[in-house]
Design brief:
Layout: H1 8-21, H2 26-32, H3 37-44, H4 52-62, H5 66-71, H6 79-82
Helix pairs in contact: 2-3
């Protein structure tokens, strides 16, 4: 996945791609990170900017860097995710 701008749509696309790589529903993806499905859904649907608090929870749970989430930089991603982008 190429680097994209930090637009809300680009962030949403990266979240969705990582979720698909993990083969999880939105509900499971969110809840494993300690985020409610109701809070997470608008992030992935590009209806709300991803909060820093939620981004940090996703980073801790899935090993995806904030640089990837917000800017698409793949340098520090786990190999499993990088090879499927």
């Amino acid at each position: 996945m190429e680097e994209l701008a930090d637009s809300i749509e680009a962030v949403a696309a990266r979240l969705k791609r990582v979720r698909h790589i993990h083969k999880l529903s939105k509900k499971d993806f969110a809840e494993r990170a300690g985020i409610s499905e109701q809070a997470y859904g608008p992030y992935e649907n590009a209806r709300r900017d991803l909060s820093l608090e939620s981004a940090k929870k996703l980073r801790k749970t899935y090993g995806i860097s904030l640089e990837f989430i917000y800017f698409g930089k793949i340098d520090d991603l786990p190999h499993r995710i990088t090879k499927e982008l």
